[in-house]
Amino acid sequence: MLGYILRRLFIAVPVLFGVTVINFIIMKMAPGNPVDMLVSPKLPEAARQAKMAELGLDDSAVSQYISWMKNLLFHGDLGYSMITFQPVTDMIMDRLGPTILIMGTSLILGLFIAIPIGILSATKQYTKLDYFFVTGSFLGISIPNFFLSLVLVYVFAIQLNWLPSSGMKDIGTTGSVWTVLLHMVLPVIVLVANVAGRNIRYVRSSMLEILGQDYLRTARAKGLKESRVVNKHAMRNALIPIVTIIGLEIPILFGGAVVIEQIFSWPGIGQLTLSSIMSRDYSTIMGLNLVAAFVVIAANILTDIVYAIVDPRIRKSYLGASKR
Amino acid sequence: MNKPLLVLANVKTYYPVKTGFMNLKTDYIKAVDDVSFELMAGETLGLVGESGCGKSTLGRTIIGLEPLTEGRILFNGNELNFKTERVSLSKQIQIVFQDPYSSLNPRQTVGKLLAEPLHVHKIVAKNEVETEVERLLELVGLPKTAKERYPHEFSGGQRQRIGIARALALRPKLIICDEPVSALDVSIQAQIMNLFKQLQQELGLTYLFIAHGLGAVKYISDRIAVMYAGKIVEIGSAEQIFTNPQHDYTKKLLNAYPVPDPRKRSIVVQQGQNDA
User: Domain A94-268's class?
Assistant: First the structure.
């Protein structure tokens, strides 16, 4: 098992390298540069050139990439933002907390809703309750995040004035736990609608597949109560594929956060990503991209490990592989 | 052998099929259609018939895994009521399933899957569960160490032994064997058949042995019932069914059964006479 994990981590290195190269190329192909975004168009050409040289933007693209990579490898440093001149690492670290806060809350809440509903829906297949849940989950998936966000803001923030519509804290305060929670409500509702909607369908179909298995008939033949058959034999087997889905859910949430954080002005990674792209803040974009790639790869490896823990058949094959 | 252990009286298992405008018209698939027979304690009744004739459905109806549409099932002289007694009935009547690959929960070790019915039905005291599991494994010819392993680590024959041990765990009087050897290699089939015979002698079990292969049924059965399209068309001693079949379908079934030397077939049905 340990050998397997080490191998996966080893493979992750070239993947991360490839991500930075491709990202750099795409970024360079986009028109504009940080200086054009930063300074007034009326600036004399000489001053502009001086600024370009100062930021190292007049070098060739290849040497720019190499110097970025050197800095990362030898100093573990992601450089300084070309717009705010803060260290990129600090900027990302500041933003990571709020993003993890809403993403984590949404993921956990979403699954707490999706798993029981999915199982109930499957055990009561083709009843009115099942149709109700399936329709609800379909709505959750189909409504675009931005649209649901705007509707919620209109109703709860503008019309009813119950909840704040933007930011994480009230302006000018340090932000108590209560106010942060209040600010979280709307973005979390939007993300949960999506996570729950998607996962109700996954859980339901996974459960339906298991409910048709022969070993459930065996469990009934053992004289177990129906509740034990469903909760012990069916559910535990049905949740194995769900582990994979949760692993995929993390990158989706990371991407979804870009839109949600923008709409609700949530001071997280997504908002930083969008603003750094807008201002062509090359070093920040590179840093964010590296973090995103890292999160996706880590989520994948974690999924595989958890998968091996929950499924004895897979555990066996991993153990066999690592002995070689 | 004089008192019937199991009596089936006009047992019917129908599945409704809704057709017509707005699903208003209800039709039925008659999986088991008016079946009656008696099974004596200690005997083995073979139940044969082609695929889809309802023999497995009948087996599952007897243990309450399929709904009984009509008719009565008496066990030990008491009428069974599956709605209220499915759980307690499992102690009296058990089943060995056809496919040993899919009928064991892949996430339970063999020890756990054998211990579960012992716990749920309180067959033995808690501290004796371990030894009971080992005893069961020994009974079906598996090593004690098998309890720490998962079903997927065993071969088909070994898995079927686990399936049999699981059925025996509740110390039933009657075991329904639902084509227990048809998913196994021929060489393994004989071993499992012998195990069934040996267990019957040791534990005094009664079998309802469902199969579509006549060889297995001939080997193990005292009496044989032939089923066709949900009905039992002929029932008699194994000897009589094989040497003097009465019903055309029985003759056809025997004719389809391969024998080492076809020229010595005892029953010959004219070609074309009974072919569908």
Answer: mainly alpha
> Which pLDDT tens digit goes with each residue over A79-135?
888 888 888 888 989 888 899 999 999 999 999 999 999 999 999 988 999 999 999
B233 within a domain of the structure (yes/no)? yes
| Nearest C-alpha in A relative to B152 | A313
For residue A218, list chain B residues with Cβ-Cβ distance below 8 A: 97, 103-105, 163, 166
Is B132 within a domain?
A: no
Q: Which residue of A has its CA nearest to B86?
A: A223
CB contact under 8 A, A218 and B104: yes
Q: CA B153 to CA B217: how far, in whole Å?
A: 29
How many domains would you assign to chain B? 1
Helix (H), strand (E) at residue B78:
strand B78-79
Q: Using a pLDDT cut of 70, give the percent of chain B over it.
A: 92
Please state, in angstroms and as integers, the Cα–Cα distance from residue A115 to each residue in A77, A109, A121, A227, A268, following that order.
42, 10, 10, 16, 28
Structural domain for B246, as ranges: 4-19+26-99+172-256
> Cα–chain-centroid distance for residue B6?
14
What is the tens place of the pLDDT at every residue in B102-123?
Answer: 899 988 899 999 999 999 888 8
**What are the residues facing B224 on neighbouring strands?**
B46, B236
| CA gap B209, B224 in Å, rounded | 9
User: What is the H or E stretch that residue B207 is in?
Assistant: strand B206-211
Could you tell me the residue ranges of all domains in chain A? 1-83+279-324, 94-268
ipTM of the complex: 0.81
Q: How far apart are CA A283 and CA B113, in angstroms?
A: 57
Measured CA to CA, the distance from residue B146 to residue B148 in angstroms comes to 6
Q: pLDDT tens digit string along A202-216?
A: 999 999 999 988 899
Domain of residue B94, CATH code: 3.40.50.300
Is residue B42 assigned to a domain? yes
Instruction: Cite the DSSP H helix spans in chain B.
Output: 55-62, 82-89, 110-120, 129-139, 156-168, 186-203, 214-220, 238-243, 248-256
- Residue to mutate among A215, A231, A311, with most B CBs inside 10 A, is A215
Q: Within a domain: residue B135?
A: no
pTM: 0.79
Question: CA separation (Å) from B272 to A263, B8, B32, B253?
Answer: 79, 35, 28, 14
